[in-house]
Structures are given as C-alpha cells and as structure tokens.
C-alpha cells in the first residue's frame, strides 16, 4: 500500500446517506451530471482502475479522498453496477438530460400532425428501450426476441395512446392537446419497462444481505423494483412535459414569438432541459437505489432457503435499476 489514504472508505456505497431523500438527491445529482457524457475513454478507464485497485487495497500515490469519490462517481456513471460492463453512451443516466430535453422538446413542439406524433413517439421509445436495457437490474442476459417484443409493444402503446388522445382533444381547448405527449409517455413507460425487464419478472433479480452476500434470486423483488422505476420515470416526465406547455401556450400569443416562430422549438427544448436538470436526479432519488424487502415478503421457497442458511436475516437488499 502506498499513500496516506485509509482503506476503510466504503466506495461500494454512495458518499451520502441513502436513508434520506436529500442524501439520495445529492448522489443522483452526481450520477446524472450531463458533463459525464463528455468524459473520454481514457478518463473512464483511469476511474475504473482507481476504483478497482482501491477495492483490492492498492492506492495510487497522492490520491486524495475527494479524488477517490470523484473516480467512484465517474465509474458509476459509465459502468453497470451488477455486470461491471461499460454501458452504452446514450443509455447512461448522465445522458438523460441532453437526450430527453431534445426528444421531449420536439414531442411538445411537433404534436399537431399525425406523422409528427408517430415519428417522435417512435424516437422516444427507441431511446427508452436503450435506457431500460442499459440500466436493467441484475446480471442476466436478455435475448434479442425479448428486446424486440418490448420495443414493439412500448412503441405501439405510445403511438396508439398519443393518436387516441389527440383525436379526443380536437374539440377541447388547444392547451389540452399539448399534454397528449405526456399521457403517451406515461402509458409507454408502464409498458416498456416491464417488457424490457421481463426476464427479471420471470427468473428474479439477485437479492443479498446487508454485507452484499448473494442469497438467491427473487421475482417479488423484481416486481417491487420495476414498480419503483416506473413511478420514478413518470415523475421525471411530469415537470418537463407539464410546465413548458403552459409557458409556451402563453408565449406563443406574444407578438415577438409570432414574428419569429422558428424560436418555438429551441425555447421549448431549453425549458424542458431546465426542468430535467432538476427532475431527473430528484425523481431518481424517490426510492433508494439499494432497495430492500422483508424476507417474509419473498417467495416461500426463497424464504425457506434463507431461514435455513441465515436464520438471523430479516431483510434482503437488491439493485432496483434506474
């Protein structure tokens, strides 16, 4: 060992207390920081080496605690917590704000014609499919057939919902039509996430004790994890898809916006981005990343196995995904 940094810093866990909402919010502001998207492969690799070496008791000379935590958050932003593999760039949580502000802004701007609705819902669900696959819980593989079924089902659900609501809002005040994309996104999340993570619902996700020792796989834990992620994702969309339409509805009546209609899309995208910078980490923080469940709520067979091998354990933990 070299350097003065102690080896007892628990970088397996976030830096802030995950038992509180504010602690989780601080953690996710770091994880979803859009600047992480710009980091080079060399920086990511250096962070990975720093983190993995520290876990093995090897400390880079001169490494400070702040530098260690920075490396940990760079590592967490780019590598899957269960598999350790580097995640697709656009699927990382740090890409959520720049990607979603562009797609959501366009969905809210180009909602008046059927081709535009279909195209932007398709783009959004293509992006969501990548995000849901990239941030799945557990280390089990998912087949291309499962991916395809999830993708087609979610895209179809979003488009049908959007077109159905669009036709219903024809005789309502114009502002109501602006909320159609949000309803479609909410419906699609309820379809896309469970479909994309259907293998977890069938075979379960890893559950462990407080020290991280794997105890088995649970479908009950998978159900809880997926419900929490669906709620968080819909929550993320609420500010970005509910606030800008109200503002834009007022702005479009102004003479300045009527003279320069080309500003509509950039202003909409900017407003969405401003909302997402705060909504993304705050909604990720609604539930602990390391979620928990009482042993008594697990499947009977898994309960029995845990009680036989670890009779003192009353609570299990699992990565809920994002």
UniProtKB/TrEMBL annotation:
UniProt catalytic activity: L-serine(in) = L-serine(out)
Membrane topology: Multi-pass membrane protein
Pfam families assigned to the protein according to its UniProt record, in alphabetical order: SFXNs
Keywords per UniProt: Amino-acid transport, Membrane, Mitochondrion, Transmembrane, Transmembrane helix, Transport
Xref: InterPro entries: Mtc (IPR004686)
Molecular function terms from GO: monoatomic ion transmembrane transporter activity
GO process terms (BP): serine import into mitochondrion
TM regions (residue ranges): 175-195, 225-247, 267-287
Main location: mitochondrion
Localization in the cell: Mitochondrion membrane
Domain of life: Eukaryota
GO cellular component terms, A-Z: mitochondrial inner membrane
Role, per record: Mitochondrial serine transporter that mediates transport of serine into mitochondria, an important step of the one-carbon metabolism pathway. Mitochondrial serine is converted to glycine and formate, which then exits to the cytosol where it is used to generate the charged folates that serve as one-carbon donors.
Family membership: Belongs to the sideroflexin family.
Protein name (record): Sidoreflexin
């Amino acid at each position: 060992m070299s350097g003065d940094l102690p080896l007892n810093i628990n970088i397996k866990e976030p830096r802030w207390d995950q038992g509180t909402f504010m602690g989780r919010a601080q953690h996710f502001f770091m994880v979803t920081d859009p600047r992480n998207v710009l980091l080079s492969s060399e920086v990511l690799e250096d962070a990975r080496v720093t983190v993995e070496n520290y876990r093995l008791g090897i400390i880079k000379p001169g490494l400070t605690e702040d530098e260690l935590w920075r490396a940990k958050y760079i590592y967490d932003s780019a590598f899957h917590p269960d598999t350790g593999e580097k995640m697709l760039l656009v699927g990382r949580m740090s890409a959520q704000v720049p990607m979603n502000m562009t797609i959501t802004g366009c969905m809210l701007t180009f909602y008046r014609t059927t081709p535009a609705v279909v195209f932007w819902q398709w783009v959004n669900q293509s992006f969501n499919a990548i995000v849901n696959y990239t941030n799945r819980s557990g280390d089990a593989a998912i087949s291309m057939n499962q991916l395809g079924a999830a993708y087609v089902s979610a895209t179809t659900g979003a488009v049908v919902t959007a077109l159905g609501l669009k036709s219903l809002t024809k005789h309502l005040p114009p502002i109501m039509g602006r909320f159609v994309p949000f309803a479609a996104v909410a419906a699609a999340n309820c379809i896309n996430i469970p479909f994309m993570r259907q293998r977890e619902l069938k075979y379960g996700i890893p559950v462990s004790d407080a020290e991280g020792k794997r105890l088995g796989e649970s479908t009950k834990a998978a159900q809880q994890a997926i419900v929490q992620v669906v709620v968080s994702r819909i929550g993320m969309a609420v500010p970005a898809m509910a606030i800008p339409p109200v503002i834009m509805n007022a702005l479009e009546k102004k003479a300045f916006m009527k003279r320069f209609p080309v500003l509509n899309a950039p202003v909409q995208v900017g407003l969405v981005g401003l909302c997402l910078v705060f909504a993304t980490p705050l909604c990720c923080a609604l539930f602990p990343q390391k979620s928990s469940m009482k042993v008594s709520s697990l499947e009977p067979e898994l309960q029995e196995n845990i009680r036989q091998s670890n009779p003192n354990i009353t609570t299990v933990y699992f990565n809920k995904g994002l």
